[in-house]
Fold this sequence. Notes:
Helix content is 41%, strand content 18%. The protein is α/β, with parallel strands linked by helices. The protein folds into three domains: 1-103, P-loop containing nucleotide triphosphate hydrolases (Rossmann fold, 3-Layer(aba) Sandwich), CATH 3.40.50.300; 124-185, no CATH class; 186-288, no CATH class. A four-stranded parallel beta sheet has the order 2-1-3-4. A four-stranded antiparallel beta sheet has the order 5-6-7-8, with no helix packed on it.
Amino acid sequence: MYVGFDESRNQLIRNAESFGWNFEEYEKKGLLVIRSIYASEKLPDEHLADITQIVESKKIKRCVFDSLSAVSNSFPEDIFTSFTRRLIGYLKTKNVTTLLTATTGALVGAAELIETRLLTMADNIITLRHVEMESKLGLVLNIIKVRGSAHSKALRRYDITSKGIVVGPSLAGYEGIMTGVTRKVSETFEEKLESEFKTFIGPMATSVFLELKSRGLTKENIFSYIDELTNQGIIKKEDASTFKQNVDTIILFHLAYDSKSNQKTDKKNVDGISTGKFDVEIGPKLKR
């Protein structure tokens, strides 16, 4: 079920079509129930009665509630808090997986996410924010809370595409992210690796590195790719061993950094280890 308070039904259906989702077709097949009404059109108890009736009659198991902010802006704080507590409590008793959205008061930078007392109700909290990065506005995602489970503490870039949300590398080489204005202070794992490729193969390194990333940045894949480039004559045989030594050193420093940060990293699979900072020399360089 989709419970919307910010958009009309027609606007919601039109926006969904831009992502390739035919909500009207899903409704006809009984796969989706849409309840779209502006928050101020009914009292909180009336909204709650409508939602519970739909959950009971349609045997709803997944619900999107968009958004808490629309309800908060329409009613006094104590009424909003009471409504939200009862809503979440009811959905939990019915084993309904619920996604609730809420907007912040600032486009860029730190802002209060939602009324503090409500944070304890949610099992998982993910924030999406805008930050100024490299002279443009970037999108950053981070996990605030996962009840009963360990989770990544990294701040990561993300992008919204026609295929959905694509989560990118972490921003370990930046500081000031939470303020909305970032400053680069060190290189990430991927940047160090790409720098090595530029050292050994020159201008074509960027395209070569992108191809390698598509295979996965594991140690085995990287070394295998270096062997391929050597066999093709792109890298000299006498340079290949030095190249591998430098890569191995980068990986080892990353693992050491993760260990100090109480993060577990598998030596055999370092795919996605674009976290951590490396303010050290990384072994012997290519002699020209």
